[in-house]
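User: Hi! Is it possible to get a structure for several chains at once, not just one? Here's what I have:
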Amino acid sequence: MIRVEQLSKDYGGLIALRDVSFEVGRGEIAGFVGPNGAGKTTALRIIAGFIGATSGKVTVDGHDIASEPLEVRRRIGYMPEAAPLYPEMRVMEYLSFRAALKRVPRRRQVSAVSRAMQQAGVEDVAPVVIAHLSKGYRQRVGLADALVASPPLLILDEPTAGLDPNQIREVRRLIRELGKEHTVFLSTHILSEVESICDRAIVIDRGRIVAEGTLRDLQARRGAVEMELLVVDRGGRSAKLVENSPGVETIEVEALGENRLRLRVRSTDKTSPDALMESLVRILVENQVGVRGATCLKARLEDVFSELTRAETTEAGPGGAQDWSKPAG
Amino acid sequence: MNGLFPIYRREMLSLWVTPLAWILLCIFLLLQGAIFYSIVAHFSRLVDLSLDSGPVQAYFGQESIFLLLTLLLLSPALTMRLFAEERRSGTIEPLLTAPVTPVAVVLGKYLSTLSTYLMMWSPTLLYIIILRKTGAVDWGVVASSYLGIFGVGAAYLAVGTLMSAMSKSQLISLMLTVLVIFGMFVLGVGEYIFDAGLLHSICAHVSVLSQMEEFSKGVVDLRRLVFDVSLAAFCLFLTVRVVDSWRWS
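Assistant: Yes, the chains can be modeled jointly so their relative placement is included. Here is the combined structure:
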């Protein structure tokens, strides 16, 4: 749906994007993740046609944004950061205006507006002047605007920024719902958002793509695997047994009283954490150590993210982008 | 031209649901009423009336300096928010990422101020109707006078549209417009300063005072209208280029 090739943007000395390439497939919900100032908004603005790229090529649904800008914009429902709206207009007026602007045929405008209002949950504020709306409602009016012409592609820049937890949950649910019919490309600096909404994440840092792939791929890129074992150990041998097992790098022991221990195991072997856990449990049980629990600590995306963006600071030179969906070479 | 009409409609709505247009209308009509009243009062004291000078001619012609001074404030106030406000509040982003061309955006906005300008002038037709009750009115002169007013407004508003695109601040765009319009006005006054020659011809050509004086006598000089229209077209063309250039800033 979106194909970005070697996109660069230079704001007169400040390089916002360097040779960024990625693709977003049809029907996908893709998350564009990165710290503030990484170039997310710049990239989205270029795709939406608000600003021009210094070099590179972007096509949306096969149409080049440079040569067919109107064709591209007709296919995109774009919600800019903070969803700027005209404060003096009523919600319904605004959405009718946007529908007309996006060339929704006149006889379908009324139904298009009411459908968009219903999808975004702003029906109850339809006659309200936008200036009187809360931040959450404004954000949703922005979303309704993106939806009003039912475009195949939705581009949402930080759709949950500035909302309260309930509203965030509501908007995330809505985006997942929309993902069934539309291709969605959203940007965020909140990783849990990607975890809860997206099929795939593209991680950007300082204008470069540092990782790309499904959430599982990204999680597998974690530097180390950690697992936790709860044991009842009367002989006091468990720590030694685990430490001497193949694949175990470090171990931390925490006594919980009454012979109960918590063993935190760290391994650098990332290929098969499950096999490692099974073999550890087997060794312990065979040696009369009671195992009460075993958990593989899930690699949180936050950790992956900070590892990826940190790695980038030490790594000099270009070519930092790696496709994490393929086995690392 | 896709999007021109929705943009035009939205601009009209924004102008008239906010107090701005109403305040401007009030100030404008108060000033015009005062000017017209004093002109009529002046003529009513005259005993001998020559045919080619009456209140209508004086209002649009010899005394048009008052009228032009109100336009000096009115037109920049109408246009100052067009782009400046959208850029400051960020609404320019959803506007320009909709499937519309910059030409439609600029024209839609410009035409909304031009219609508002004409709407503000329309109550002044009452003055003519009142005059008609007490004496003869040359409708040809009335038509040509309003044509002159239309030409001047079309040019001034286009200057204002361009200046609104030049700055994110409404105040700065207002001041820039006043500066340009006032500059042109002063240039026109040069007609009375320079002796015959190139400078004199240039000044006479751009003088709004002479334009209104001619039109108020029923003399419709096409060159005047061509000047107004080409000035407007040039400013609007530049505005489209400026809007285009934002993509690359």
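DSSP finds eleven helices and 14 strands in chain A. The interface with chain B takes residues 45, 48-52, 70, 73-74, 76, 78, 80, 82, 84-89, 93, 97-98, 100-103, 142, 145 of chain A (CB under 8 Å).

User: Great, thank you!
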